[in-house]
Write a structure and sequence with these properties.
This protein is α/β, with parallel strands linked by helices. It is built from 14 helices and twelve strands. It starts with a helix and ends with a helix.
Length: 325
C-alpha cells in the first residue's frame, strides 16, 4: 500500500498512530529483518493490517512493557530490527531502565514508538500523559536518536527512514485522530536535518511535533500584527541540527522554542544548551507545559488552556518581544 494510494487527507484522519500502522506495511520490503512488537496495543498502534498481512513478524507481548523491551533486545542481538510500540508514558518511564541498558549501553538497533505523547490521551489524565519523555530519551547515554514528527506525512517518512537506520531510536508521536496537515505535498526528509517552514526577521520559532502546525498558525496571527516570524520544524531532537542552529543564532536576536512537553529538560532545554555555548546567543522564550501535574480534559481544550494553540503561542511571543525590546 503505497503513500500515493492512501492520500494525505486519509493519513490525517487516521492520526499519527494509524499512520504508524500504515507505514509499517512498507517496512518489510525495506528491512527484511524487521520484527514488530506491541504491549497489547495492536489496534491502538494501527497494526491490525500488519498483523494480518505479516503474522510471522508480529508479536503481542501483552501488558508487560519492560519485558517487551527485553524481548526486542534479544531479537536485535540476533540481527533483527524490532519496532516496539506502547503509550509514550509507559515506553519512556516504565521501560526506561531496560531501554537505557539495551538501547543506550548496548546500542542495539531498536525502534521504540511512543504513542499518544504529550496530552493526546486527554481524559485518561496525567497518568497517561507523556510530558517528560523528551527529557528522558535525549539524556540517555549512547547514540539514542529522538524524533518527533510534525504531522502524519512526517510520521510516515520517519518510519521508513528509521527502518534502514542503524541507530537506536525513540519516535515520539503527538496529536490525535483528524490531526492537522503541515505538509500537503511530498518533501525531502532527513533524520537530523531541521526544515525551515517560512522566513521572517522579528523572531525565529523552533517547534517540534504537534507544535509545528500551531506555530505556523501563530505566525499567521503575528503577521496580522506586523510581526514577521521564521518557523522551523525540528523533527529530530537528538541529534540536533547544529548547522541550522548556528544559522539561527547568527541571524536572530530572539528565539522561541515550542513543544508539547515540560519546559524542563525537553526540546527547549536542548536548544538552550547549544546557544549558551555561543558568543552573544539570542534571547530565548520557552513555550511548553509547566513542570507540574495539571488538568485532565479533551485534547483541544488542554492545548488552549496551556496556551499551546496558535492563538496562545502568538500571544506569548508578542508579550515576549514587547518585554525584551
Amino acid at each position: 500500500m503505497k503513500l500515493d494510494r492512501i492520500g494525505l487527507r486519509s493519513l490525517s484522519r487516521l492520526g499519527a498512530r494509524g499512520t504508524y500502522g500504515i507505514a509499517m506495511l512498507e517496512v518489510p520490503s525495506l528491512q527484511p529483518e524487521v520484527k514488530v512488537l506491541t504491549a497489547d496495543l495492536c489496534n491502538t498502534s494501527g497494526l491490525d493490517r500488519f498483523r494480518d498481512q505479516f503474522p510471522s513478524l508480529f508479536y503481542n507481548i501483552g501488558i508487560a512493557e519492560q519485558n517487551m523491551i527485553g524481548i526486542a533486545a534479544g531479537l536485535a542481538k540476533e540481527g533483527f530490527v524490532p519496532f516496539v510500540s506502547t503509550f509514550a508514558n509507559f515506553a519512556a518511564m516504565r521501560s526506561y531502565e531496560p531501554m537505557r541498558l539495551n538501547m543506550g549501553y548496548m546500542g542495539f538497533n531498536m525502534k521504540v514508538v511512543g504513542l499518544a505523547s504529550g496530552m493526546a490521551m486527554g481524559l485518561f489524565g496525567n497518568t497517561h500523559y507523556g510530558i517528560e519523555d523528551i527529557a528522558l530519551m535525549r539524556s540517555m547515554p549512547g547514540n539514542m536518536v529522538v524524533i518527533s514528527p510534525a504531522d502524519c506525512l512526517e510520521v510516515y517518512k520517519t518510519i521508513l527512514a528509521c527502518a534502514v537506520s542503524p541507530d537506536p531510536t525513540y519516535i515520539r508521536l503527538t496529536g490525535t485522530a483528524n490531526s492537522p496537515m503541515v505538509y500537503k505535498e511530498d518533501y525531502p526528509f532527513e533524520i537530523g536535518k531541521a526544515i525551515q517552514m517560512q522566513k521572517g526577521h522579528n523572531i525565529a520559532v523552533l517547534a517540534t511535533g504537534s507544535m509545528v502546525y500551531e506555530s505556523l498558525k501563530a505566525a499567521e496571527i503575528l503577521a496580522e500584527k506586523g510581526l514577521e516570524v521564521s518557523v522551523y520544524n525540528f523533527h529530530t531532537i537528538k541529534p540536533l541540527d547544529q548547522e541550522t542552529l548556528l544559522q539561527i543564532c547568527q541571524e536572530n536576536d530572539y528565539v522561541a522554542t515550542v513543544e508539547e512537553h515540560s519546559v524542563i529538560g525537553g526540546f527547549g532545554s536542548a536548544v538552550a544548551e547549544y546557544f549558551i555555548q555561543r558568543k552573544n546567543p539570542p534571547r530565548q522564550l520557552f513555550i511548553g507545559l509547566p513542570p507540574q501535574f495539571g488538568r485532565a480534559g479533551e485534547y483541544t481544550y488542554l492545548l488552549k488552556h496551556y496556551g499551546l494553540d496558535g492563538q496562545g503561542i502568538a500571544q506569548k511571543i508578542k508579550i515576549f518581544i514587547e518585554e525584551v525590546d
